[in-house]
Design a protein that fits this description.
The complex is a heterodimer of chains A (319) and B (291). Chain A contains 16 helices and 2 strands. Chain A is mainly alpha-helical. A two-stranded antiparallel ribbon of chain A has the order 1-2. In chain A, a hairpin with a 7-residue loop joins strand 1 and strand 2. The longest helix of chain A has 34 residues. The model of chain A has no long low-confidence stretch (mean pLDDT 87). With 291 residues, chain B is mostly helical. Helix content of chain B is 71%, strand content 0%. Classes of the chains: A mainly alpha (319), B mainly alpha (291). The interface between A and B is large, with 113 and 111 residues.
């Protein structure tokens, strides 16, 4: 940026540059880095057209009534008012998403870290790494396998086991009961949650220099927990921030798994996430303005939470 | 946290392989692998074993019936099953190749041209874009794709995904670890920017490709939103979307063997790709850290 490279006059004590001078200086730098911009161009075009532009468009559309056939019609805050005051199903989905995110986000994050930390203690790692990461690579079809495992009748593996062990007398409808439905979706999501965060933890832990632990021992670190707290965690902080951001995004974008497990819409909307609500209004009812308002709410939630975690974890204070 | 206790005790006594951790990891690892094991078992069970009661965790007479069934049944009713597989393979591989090229190109100036105006702002925008899922912008992206007349084309399945920011974010950080002197040396020898990129930057980034490849394959291969929203005909559907429509609802009970076979075909490529490249991935993934 221009400010980072003050023009020569400023450095030798002349008056501070005017905006015009600064712009000229920036322009000079821009011209000097023409090749750099050419390298960036393909990405920038795609990034602007398919990421930045859409965010701005979604914000604009959320203030309109738009059904694709007619041009968008400005209606101010009406969509948001309907969303929060009239739409019971949205409020239900908000509730489902928050419960889901609280349980899968932090729990998934902690589990990924603990598992990565434990794997890092042993020598033979390949099998464990694959066993923990493979679920997050497995296909959408896994929902069907899970449906057979959690099946509502006696043919379900889980019901069968529980009856055989004498815990249940008769099959329990795990996927039909509105109290357990979300629980099953959460369990399956947690199973798949060893994602990019897990890999970056493993990578970060692997990088730590052994000699730091030796030094720690000299300085009075007595056990593995102290070692973890005083040496390991501060060193993998950047990976922790990345993992937290991924956990938030993953937890809030839950949709496919719940559709595969309990259908769409889920019985009595018991597993209806905000994503499901967005899909419903955007592509089944074609109320794009309203759906955009839903997506803006989602966007803000993800963005604020991620930034919050980022700030919390990257504070330069002590642990 | 109770699980940590045995490992602590062991470490204090003798400094060797922590048996407690091995046991714990083996048990949880087996639990994690259980559903994948079930997938394989279900996919090779003959029909009479699939409906056996009580359900069994093993197979007595393994068969490939379900796989042939899947290919035959799907070709009779809809588009041949192989078409979905082709769509997924084609879209994923083209997209991955383009993604790696685009990310390396963009990461070079962001990481190595420190005086370039707006570089920091662009990087911060990438970082911010990591913090939300692409699904939230699906409506405007749909409008853009429709506006460009790309609905129901492979382009619509490939190009929008290339605007994701993880690759650039990751590559930039990866490239930063190398000293600028490497590039300066080439510059002294009179290389132009393009030559530096081809002969210095590309080889330097190679270790990180595995990570980009697995990341983007995973994103594209498992994506059901793009095909759901950007395609209209059966022949353009990708494997996961076809699976979602073919095996949803009560239909799945009758064809659970085929569903398991399809899930296996859907999951295996990524898992194999990961097993092959995991060492590379784990040694480079540390650069994904956010400071």
């Amino acid at each position: 940026m221009a400010q980072a490279n003050p023009p020569i006059q400023q450095r030798v004590g002349f008056q501070t540059p005017t905006i015009k001078q600064r712009m000229a200086e920036t322009w000079k730098q821009v011209k000097k880095h023409k090749a750099g911009y050419l390298f960036l161009a393909p990405f920038m075009v795609l990034f602007i057209v398919f990421t930045v532009g859409p965010v701005l468009t979604a914000i604009y559309l959320s203030f309109t009534y738009f059904n694709v056939l007619q041009p968008p019609n400005w209606i101010g805050l009406t969509n948001y008012r309907l969303l929060f005051l009239e739409d019971d199903i949205f409020l239900k989905s908000l509730h489902v998403t928050v419960v889901f995110a609280i349980l899968t986000g932090p729990v998934g994050f902690l589990l990924s870290f603990i598992m990565a930390w434990l794997i890092n203690q042993v020598k033979v790692r390949l099998l464990y790494v694959v066993a923990f990461y493979a679920p997050s690579l497995s296909g959408i079809g896994m929902a069907q396998i899970m449906r057979i495992f959690f099946a509502n009748d006696r043919y379900g593996y889980l019901n069968n086991l529980l009856i055989r062990w004498g815990i249940l007398d008769e099959p329990f409808p795990w996927l039909a009961d509105i109290d357990t439905m979300l629980g099953v979706v959460i369990a399956v999501q947690l199973w798949m949650s060893m994602g990019p965060g897990f890999l970056s933890f493993l990578a970060g832990l692997q990088q730590i220099d052994e000699s730091l632990y030796e030094a720690g021992k000299v300085d009075g670190v007595r056990n593995r927990l102290q070692e973890l707290w005083f040496i390991t965690l501060p060193l993998v902080r950047p990976q922790l921030v990345f993992g937290a951001v991924m956990a938030v995004v993953g937890a809030f974008s839950m949709f496919d798994i719940s559709v595969g497990l309990v259908g769409f819409p889920s019985p009595q909307y018991a597993a209806h996430s905000i994503m499901a609500h967005l899909y419903d209004y955007a592509f089944l009812r074609f109320e794009m303005g309203y759906a955009s308002a839903v997506s803006v709410v989602m966007f803000l939630m993800m963005f604020l939470l991620s930034s919050m975690f980022r700030r919390m974890l990257s504070t330069r204070g002590e642990w | 946290m109770a699980t940590l206790v045995p490992s602590l005790r062991r470490r204090n006594k003798v400094e060797k392989e922590p048996i407690g951790i091995y046991i714990f990891l083996t048990v949880t690892g087996a639990l994690m692998a259980l559903p994948l094991y079930l997938m394989v078992i279900q996919s090779i069970k003959p029909i009479e074993e699939l409906f056996l009661w009580p359900p069994r965790f093993y197979v007595m007479r393994p068969t490939l019936e379900n796989y042939t069934d899947l290919v035959l049944a799907a070709s009779r009713t809809w588009v041949p099953f192989t078409r979905y597989v082709f769509n997924s393979l084609f879209v994923t591989s083209v997209s991955v190749v383009l993604y790696v090229i685009i990310c390396c190109m963009a990461a070079y100036p962001l990481a190595k041209m420190r005086k370039m105006p707006f570089a920091a702002a662009i990087f911060n925008a990438c970082l911010a874009a990591l913090m939300f899922a692409p699904q939230v912008t699906v409506i405007p992206r749909y409008l853009t794709v429709a506006g460009l007349g790309l609905i129901d084309t492979y382009t619509a399945l490939i190009v929008p995904g290339l605007g994701g920011s993880f690759g650039v974010f990751f590559m930039k950080q990866f490239l930063e670890q190398y000293p600028d002197a490497l590039l300066e040396a080439a510059r002294m020898d009179g290389a132009n920017e393009w030559q530096i990129f081809r002969n210095v930057v590309i080889p330097l980034t190679r270790p990180a490709w595995a990570t980009l490849i697995i990341w983007h394959s995973q994103t594209v291969w498992r994506d059901t939103w793009s095909p759901m929203v950007f395609t209209t005909t059966e022949a353009m559907k990708t494997l996961p979307l076809a699976m979602q429509t073919m095996f949803s609802g009560e239909l799945v009970v009758a064809r659970q063997g085929a569903a398991a076979a399809a899930t296996f075909l859907e999951s295996a490529p990524l898992i194999i790709l990961f097993i092959i490249s995991q060492r590379r991935i784990i040694s480079t993934m540390a650069h994904a850290g956010i400071k």
